[in-house]
Amino acid sequence: MDYKQQIADLLTESTGLDRDRILELIEIPPQLDMGDYAFPCFTLAKTLRKAPPMIAGDIAGSINLDGTVFTAKNAGPYVNFYIDRSAYAVNVIDEVNKSGIVMDTAANSDKNVIVEYSSPNIAKPFHVGHAFTTVLGNSLARIYKKLGYNVIRMNHLGDYGTQFGKLITAYRLWGDEAALNEDPIKELLRIYVKFHQEEKNDPTLTDTARDNFRKLEEGSPDEVALWQKFRDMSLVVFNKLYERIGVEFDNYNGESFYSDKIPEIVDILNEKGLLVESKGAKVVMLDDEGLPPCIILKSDNTTIYASRDLASALYRYRTYHFDKNIYVVGNTQALHFKQVFSVLKKAGFDFADKCEHVAFGLVKFKDMVFSTREGNIVLLEDLLNESVSKTREIIANNAKERGQDMSEEEIDEIAEKLGVGAVIYTFVKSGRERDIVFSWKEMLDFEGDSAPYLIYTYARTRSILRKGEQQGKHPASGDSLKILTGDDEYAVIRAVADLKDAVVKAASSNEPFMIARQVALIARAYNRFYNNSSILNCDDDDLVCARLALCSSVCTAIREGLDLLGISCVERM
Question: What pTM, to 2 d.p., does this model score?
Answer without folding.
Answer: 0.92
